[in-house]
Amino acid sequence: LTDLLQQYATSFRDPMMLQPPEWFKAFIYCEAFLQLPFFPVAAYAFLKGGCRWIRTPAIIYSTHVATTLFAILAHILFHDFSKSEHVGPQSLRERLVLLSIYLPYLLIPLLLLFTMLCNPHYKHVEKRKRK
């Protein structure tokens, strides 16, 4: 696995995987302790179907992931990697290739958020008491 990680980081010029900045490490811990436990719960809710209670956790999950990905994508686009210990993207093309690897991790949570906010099945219907 170490060789695979080294090969990925070298091929796609992703120094964050070999020497992650402190803020990136914080995102990794959030993923390990908050996002990964969400997956089995979400899988259960979506496979079972009709589970409207998944709406709020899915909104929290998707906004959190999208927020972290905006920071990662901005780092890829604007950071000066020439000072990194490991080789990072230098040209715009290399930055866009690396960006394309991370982009699905933004698009899927945004699709989930859109589904939770716009799909009528998941919209909260307020029940009124009759007097």
From TrEMBL:
Similarity comment: family membership: Belongs to the TMEM97/sigma-2 receptor family.
Q: Which organism is it from?
A: Oriolus oriolus (Eurasian golden oriole)
For this UniProt entry, which segments traverse the membrane? 26-47, 59-78, 98-122
Endoplasmic reticulum: present as a keyword of the record?
Answer: yes
Family annotation (InterPro entries): EXPERA (IPR033118), Sigma-2_receptor-like (IPR051987), Sigma2_recept (IPR016964)
> Which Pfam families does the record cross-reference, listed alphabetically?
EBP
Q: In its UniProt entry, what is this protein called?
A: Sigma intracellular receptor 2
For whether the record's keyword set contains Endoplasmic reticulum, the answer is: yes
